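Side project, low priority. Logging it here so it doesn't get lost.
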Amino acid sequence: MAQSSNPGFKERVKSLATLNNAHKGMCFGQGVLMSIFRWVILLGVCYIILAPMIGMLANSFMSTSDLYNPLVFLIPRAFHPYNYITAFTHMLYIPTMVRTMAFALSITLLQVLVTSLVGYGFARFKWPGREVMFAIVIITILIPAQTYTVPLFMQFRFFSFLGFETNLVDSYWPIALLTATGMGLQQGYLFIYSGSFLEACQRK
């Protein structure tokens, strides 16, 4: 009771309460600023990813005059579905899309199957030269695809198997062979599966 009646004690309590409120206000302001900063970063990344698709979608409804008009940007002066009509009537869009989706799905499933099996072998079993082989896998991921595009083309242009030479260019075989050997996506899936299986084995 003596402390509560002391004026100095009341002033210290008020000052502490004021500092506490100021600290809460500062923390709230910092939280708001961080939320705004995160939203700005997310919107910027989304724009970078979605800008090409938005541009292609806008250009698909433009006429030829709008495409070559520097004053027209994203929003055409008049929407024209001519491009879609041409694609559906003259390019056999539906059958082509079905074939493309079937081919992409089959290649993806084959890639997942092969890389998961090889990744499990890297993570589960210990065999001589495993570290060297895994280092080679990492190196193949880091090498840009442009550096071996021409050698791959020459390999499939003059493809030889058991003394029989043939030309596999302009066919599905190059992608199918690369996928079956785990090279369809620069062995990226193999690295991911190997890390996941290794972490699961360590937990056990």
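Brief comment: The chain is about 70% helix and 5% strand.
Revisit when time allows.
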